[in-house]
Write a structure and sequence with these properties.
- The chain has 436 residues and is an alpha/beta fold.
- Helix 5 links the parallel strand 5 and strand 6.
- It is globular and about 65 Å long.
- The chain contains 16 helices and 16 strands.
- The two termini are 26 Å apart.
- The longest helix is centred in the N-terminal third of the chain and has 21 residues.
- Helix 10 packs across helix 13.
């Protein structure tokens, strides 16, 4: 995030999953990151100052978007069309032709920025649903380029994808890459099915002939920098955070969830499940605290503002119904927190609730597991529709729409024998360390 404070531009690295997940790789391999900095300087002088700072301090090259581009391309086509459609929320999609035109023009803007910086033999790695036209645009300008494309969200089934009026253009845009990656085998399979049934292109073991090129499609589940989290748990700052938290919580068991505030994350359903758990198990009143960390997201979009209102009201209702003078069932934090605070929460929690309705991967599940074991053996309750469920089968797997089963999963996780928790944790930790 970039903002002005006392007339000086302040730069903070993004808290988003993609940026965090690739930060270590980007730094170690001296990559140049081309992207929108989330801030729109008003003068050419300010643009140049910011560009130089981003290049020299962060190895980043900015693509500036105007207010209308942010509205139509980012909040519009990217987050009001592609995001809900790819997460199977078809009734939330808008299909606005002017937003599609902005999506094309901003992808073209990124291509122009790339052409200003790219050198021969560079590997070009394009990320995510906001830039699905870019691989083909680069291919037209630099036919011999080496291009990878990775999608960080689900790729939907053909029956859902074909709702999109510009489906052919999106598929052809992605096919400009040499290697196309997805988080899970299912997403790769859906993509290949669309390539066959919409574009009529056959595939052979994940290879597609596109003109005079062979494009490879494969599955690459995204990992985390596990060593960074493990080292963080042992640090003095995190131990101090833990001590403070334990003093506040006394003997209470801690349940934790960490999400961007988004309709794909299943937050209202999870709150209803926690309410049902408290209803069914009155002996747990005063003995458990649910720390719910929600990071603000896309708060300019009406649907997100309505979700915030719904979540606020549910938290108030549950705390009002079950709370006592010395105990609030839910500790609700609507903000970003520093890395040390996050690790402190991860390592102190007895149970993590990761129950998105649909999620491309979900790195919170992996980060939580990486931070466990030193202070306690925590339990992960994980949605079957998160991409990470394919790798973390030892977790308590739930259907995020089944409030009753989620309420029982909370009880099961809190009462699980220590040796069972330890065994599951050991297997999952081994995997996330290996596939980091």
């Amino acid at each position: 995030s970039i903002f002005k404070e006392n007339g000086k531009i302040q730069i903070n690295p993004s808290a988003g999953g993609l940026a965090t997940g690739l930060a270590s790789y980007h730094q170690e391999n001296e990559g140049l990151w081309i992207g929108w900095p989330g801030y729109n300087p008003t003068t050419d002088k300010e643009k140049n100052i910011l560009k130089n700072r981003l290049l020299n301090e962060f190895n980043c090259y900015p693509v500036y978007l105007s207010n209308i581009e942010i509205k139509k391309y980012y909040n519009g086509f990217s987050n009001n069309t592609l995001w809900p459609l790819f997460h199977y929320f078809t009734t939330r999609c808008s299909y606005d032709h002017s937003e599609w035109e902005y999506y094309q023009s901003v992808n073209s803007k990124f291509c122009k920025a790339l052409l200003e910086t790219v050198k021969p033999d560079d590997i070009i790695w394009v990320h995510d649903y906001q830039l699905m036209l870019l691989p083909e645009m680069i291919r037209k300008e630099i036919p011999e380029a080496t291009i990878g494309f990775f999608l960080h969200i689900p790729f939907p089934s053909m029956e859902v994808f074909r709702y999109l009026p510009w489906r052919n253009e999106i598929l052809n845009g992605v096919l400009g890459a040499d290697l196309i990656g997805f988080h899970t085998y299912d997403y790769s399979r859906h993509f290949l099915s669309c390539i066959l049934r919409i574009l009529g292109k056959e595939q052979n073991y994940g290879q597609i002939v596109a003109g005079d090129r062979v494009v490879k499609v494969d599955t690459f589940p995204m990992g985390i920098d596990a060593a960074r989290f493990i080292a963080g748990v042992a640090s003095e700052e995190v131990n101090a955070e833990n001590d403070n938290l334990m003093k506040t919580m006394k003997e209470n068991k801690i349940i934790l969830s960490v999400d961007r505030l988004d309709f794909t994350k299943g937050i209202p359903e999870r709150l209803q499940a926690f309410e049902l758990f408290l209803e069914n198990h009155p002996d747990w009143h005063g003995k458990v605290t649910y720390i719910m960390l929600c990071v603000p997201s896309r708060d300019k979009i009406q649907q997100y503002r309505m979700l915030k209102k719904e979540v606020d009201e549910l938290v108030g209702k549950i705390n009002g119904r079950f709370g006592t003078p010395g105990w609030s069932p839910i500790l609700y934090m609507y903000r970003s927190v520093p890395f040390t605070t996050l690790i402190g929460l991860y390592s102190s929690a007895d149970l993590a609730l990761v129950t998105p309705v649909r999620d491309g991967m979900n790195l919170v599940s992996k980060e939580y597991l990486a931070c466990q074991g030193q202070h306690k053996n925590g339990v992960l309750v994980l949605s079957e529709t998160a991409g990470s469920a394919a790798e973390l089968g030892e977790a308590i797997i739930v259907n995020p729409n089944n409030v009753n089963s989620m309420a029982e999963a909370i009880y099961q996780g809190l009462t699980m024998p220590e040796e069972d928790k330890k065994a599951a944790l050991k297997l999952m930790q081994k995997r996330i360390k290996r596939y980091n």
